[in-house]
Write a structure and sequence with these properties.
Radius of gyration: 28 Å
CATH class of one domain: Mainly Beta
Structural class: mainly beta
CATH topology of one domain: Immunoglobulin-like
Number of helices: 1
Order of helices and strands: HEEEEEEEE
Number of strands: 8
Strand order of the largest sheet: 1-6-5-4
């Protein structure tokens, strides 16, 4: 251990009389970026009057397919099954949800707010080989699952195209 160099004694130390030349440059760049971003975010963006409870939320979803089923899994944290509407119309799955702010949130002065509230609507094209009559939706712990069994005897048709050089 005695052979190791004490790296701290090689670090420069600064006093109020001496400032490193890059320190003031760093401060000026920080100030410029701060002023630049203020142009795009109004001062009242995070105030209680901006209607943050009416934003459009975009939950993430996955589509999974195996031999017998076509599945859609969707993250919907903070919602219950009563907040969600699932329907099938003209070969499309429609998922609608609304996440409203709690009465407990009224009157709070937020310093930072990242939890989204608002409405959600998503349309997903369904392949013609799924049986929409036997589809089932379930919800638990912020996850929505919609399962479609594949129709008996319905094979996926694949047409292979030859890629030609454009003229």
């Amino acid at each position: 251990m005695n052979d190791l160099i004490n790296w701290r004694k090689f670090l420069p130390t600064f006093s109020k009389q001496y400032e490193h030349p890059f320190f003031s440059l760093h401060q000026e760049i920080d100030k410029a970026f701060s002023q630049f971003y203020k142009q795009f975010v109004p001062d009242n963006f995070f105030s209680k009057d901006t209607g943050l409870q009416n934003l459009i939320i975009r939950p993430a979803f996955d589509i999974i397919e195996d031999d017998k089923t076509y599945k859609i899994e969707m993250e919907m944290p903070g919602l219950s099954e009563k907040d969600i509407s699932v329907s099938i119309k003209q070969g499309m799955l429609c998922v609608q949800a609304k996440k409203e702010t709690s009465q407990k949130n009224e009157g709070k002065e937020y310093i930072r707010r990242e939890i989204s509230y608002g409405s959600y609507e998503s349309y997903i094209d369904l392949p013609n080989y799924v049986d929409t009559e036997k589809a089932k939706a379930s919800f638990k712990k912020g996850m929505l699952w919609v399962n479609f069994p594949k129709k008996e005897g319905a094979e996926q048709t694949v047409k292979k195209l030859t890629v030609e050089r454009a003229g």
